[in-house]
Design brief:
This protein is an alpha/beta fold and about 270 residues long. It folds into three domains: about 10-145, Conserved hypothetical protein from pyrococcus furiosus pfu- 392566-001, ParB domain, CATH 3.90.1530.30; about 160-205, no CATH class; about 210-260, no CATH class. The protein has helices spanning about 30-45, 65-75, 90-105, 110-120, 125-135, 135-145, 150-160, 165-170, 175-190, 195-205, 220-240, and strands spanning about 10-15, 20, 50-55, 60-65, 80-85, 210-215, 215-220, 245-250, 255-260. It has a five-stranded mixed beta sheet. Strands 6-7 form a two-stranded antiparallel ribbon. A two-stranded antiparallel sheet has the order 8-9. Helix 1 crosses helix 2 (about 65-75) and helix 8 (about 165-170) runs parallel beside helix 10 (about 195-205). The longest helix has 17 residues, at about 220-240. The N and C termini lie far apart (about 55 Å).
Length: about 270
C-alpha cells in the first residue's frame, strides 16, 4: 500500500494567491452547488481540515484538497491553513489520486485517467502500480479499460446516470455507433446492469445454430432476424419517424405488423 511519509503536522496559514493547483489533479469537474455550500460552511465555521501543499519556485503547489481550496477562494479568504509536505512529483500525484479515490470524489472515467497518469509517471507495470496503490490488479485493469470508450460515449454515460458496470458492458461492442445506440436504449429504458449485459450478449450471440424450414426457404436464427428488425426500426425512430411494431405470437407462427407513416410524427412504440 502506498503510504504518506510522516509529517511534522505543523499548520501554516499561507496566502491563497501563492498556491497553484496541482498538475496531477485527476478530478475534472466540480459541482458549483457543492462548492457554494462548502464555502458557506467555511465562512461560518472555518476550514476544519487543512490542505496539503509542497514548496515550489515562486510559491506553493497543491498536493491534496483542491475542493477545499476552491471553496476558500469562493469564501474570499486571504489565507488558508495548510500542511507543508516534502514530496516529489510521483508522491504528489499518488496522494492526490488516493485522496479522491478514498472519498469517492471521482467519476469512473476521472479515476481511470488518474490511474493511467500515475502509472505513466511511475513508469511501472499495472501489477506494480496496483501493489503500490493497494488495489487488486484485475480491478485496476478493469478501470483502465473504461478509457477505451470515446469522449462522447463517456459523457453520454455520465449524463444519463449510468454506472461503471454499464460502461464496462458497452466495451463488448466493437462498433462505436452501436455503442451509442445501445447507450440510448439503456437510458431510455432505465435498464439494470443485468438487462444491459443480457441485451448486449444477445447482439453478440453466434448467428448459425438454429435452422427452421418456413415456406420452402431456410431462416437461420429467428431471434437474430427479429432483433435486426428492431434495430432498423430504432434507426427510423431516431430520424424522427414515428414507426411502430405490433407482434402476435401463436404456437404456429409469429405475426409482425409494422406501421411507418409517410410523414414525420411524434414517436410511438408498442410491442
Amino acid at each position: 500500500m502506498f503510504e504518506r511519509k510522516k509529517q511534522a503536522g505543523k499548520i501554516y496559514f499561507l496566502p491563497i494567491d501563492q498556491i497553484r493547483p496541482s498538475p496531477f489533479q485527476a478530478r475534472r469537474e466540480f459541482s458549483e452547488q457543492e462548492l457554494a455550500a462548502l464555502a458557506q460552511s467555511i465562512r461560518e465555521n472555518g476550514l476544519l481540515q487543512p490542505i496539503s501543499v509542497r514548496k515550489v519556485e515562486g510559491g506553493y503547489e497543491l498536493v491534496a484538497g483542491e475542493r477545499r481550496l476552491r471553496a476558500c477562494k469562493l469564501a474570499r479568504m486571504e489565507t488558508i491553513p495548510a500542511i507543508l509536505c516534502d514530496c516529489g512529483d510521483q508522491r504528489t500525484a499518488a496522494l492526490g489520486l488516493l485522496e479522491n479515490i478514498q472519498r469517492e470524489d471521482l467519476n469512473p472515467f476521472e479515476q481511470a485517467q488518474g490511474l493511467r497518469d500515475v502509472i505513466a509517471l511511475w513508469d511501472c507495470t499495472q501489477a506494480e502500480a496496483a501493489k503500490r496503490l493497494g488495489m487488486a490488479q484485475p480491478t485496476l485493469a478493469n478501470k483502465l479499460r473504461l478509457l477505451q470508450l470515446t469522449t462522447d460515449q463517456r459523457q453520454f454515460v455520465l449524463d444519463n446516470g449510468l454506472t461503471e458496470r454499464h460502461a464496462r458492458a458497452l466495451l463488448k461492442l466493437p462498433d462505436e455507433a452501436e455503442r451509442l445506440r445501445v447507450i440510448g436504449l439503456i437510458a431510455q429504458g432505465e435498464w439494470t446492469v443485468a438487462k444491459t449485459e443480457q441485451y448486449i450478449d444477445s447482439l453478440l450471440a453466434p448467428r448459425t445454430p438454429q435452422r427452421r424450414e418456413l415456406g420452402g426457404f431456410v431462416l437461420r436464427d429467428v431471434r437474430l432476424f427479429l432483433n435486426s428488425i428492431d434495430h432498423q426500426l430504432d434507426l427510423v425512430r431516431a430520424a424522427g419517424v414515428g414507426a411502430s411494431r405490433e407482434r402476435q405470437e401463436t404456437e404456429q407462427e409469429i405475426v409482425l405488423t409494422i406501421r411507418i407513416p409517410k410523414s414525420k410524427a411524434p414517436l410511438s412504440r408498442s410491442r
